[in-house]
């Protein structure tokens, strides 16, 4: 069997170890809030990065793609400002997804300087020992 969509993959991974707390219990309202966050990240943030990595994209295209990310990044910055994670206290697969997306900013040679709360969030998540180890193993650190 094959899963191809990020939200499905992340929920599958979380459900393999329910004790990890990476996803709220199936059927709970918090679970549907997690699905809401995964959907938002996929549809409003992830997809808007694509032009930044498209071969042959013009500088005008890069600027337009980055401008299109301003509103969703602003929304996320407001959400994590004063919060530890997207859903409050627990680290969930939504945080793992957002962390990965925020890493793309550096790969695209852009900056989160306009969103200090996103910078702080990215640093907090990146400092988690399990995240730092995963980044090291992937050669990303």
Structure, explained:
There is one protein chain. The protein has 141 residues and is mainly alpha-helical. It has a single domain, classed as Glutathione S-transferase Yfyf (Class Pi), Chain A, domain 2 (Up-down Bundle), CATH 1.20.1050.10. It contains 6 helices and no strands. The protein has helices at residues 6-16, 29-49, 59-80, 93-107, 116-127, 129-137. The protein is globular, with a radius of gyration of 15 Å.
Topology:
Layout: H1 6-16, H2 29-49, H3 59-80, H4 93-107, H5 116-127, H6 129-137
Helix pairs in contact: 2-3, 2-4, 3-5, 4-5
Helix and strand content put the structural class at mainly alpha
Low-confidence stretches: none
Radius of gyration: 15 Å
- Beta strand %: under 5%
Helix amount: 55-70%
Count of folded domains: 1
Mean pLDDT over all positions? 95
Just give the CATH class: Mainly Alpha
Largest sheet: none
Count, helices: 6
According to CATH, what is the topology? Glutathione S-transferase Yfyf (Class Pi), Chain A, domain 2
What CATH architecture label applies? Up-down Bundle
Number of strands: 0
> What would the principal axes of the Cα set say about the shape?
globular
For the termini, the CA-CA separation is 32 Å
Q: What's the helix-strand series? A: HHHHHH
């Amino acid at each position: 069997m094959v899963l191809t969509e990020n939200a499905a993959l992340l929920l599958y991974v979380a459900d393999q170890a329910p004790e990890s707390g990476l996803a709220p219990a199936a059927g709970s309202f918090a679970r549907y809030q997690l699905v809401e966050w995964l959907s938002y990240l996929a549809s409003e943030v992830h997809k808007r990065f694509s032009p930044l990595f498209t071969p042959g994209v013009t500088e005008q295209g890069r600027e337009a793609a980055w401008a299109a990310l301003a509103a969703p990044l602003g929304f996320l910055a407001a959400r994590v400002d004063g919060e530890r994670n997207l859903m409050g206290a627990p680290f969930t697969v939504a945080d793992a997804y957002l962390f990965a997306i925020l890493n793309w900013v550096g790969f695209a040679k852009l900056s989160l300087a306009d969103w200090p709360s996103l910078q702080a969030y990215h640093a907090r998540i990146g400092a988690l020992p399990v995240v730092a180890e995963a980044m090291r193993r992937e050669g990303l650190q």
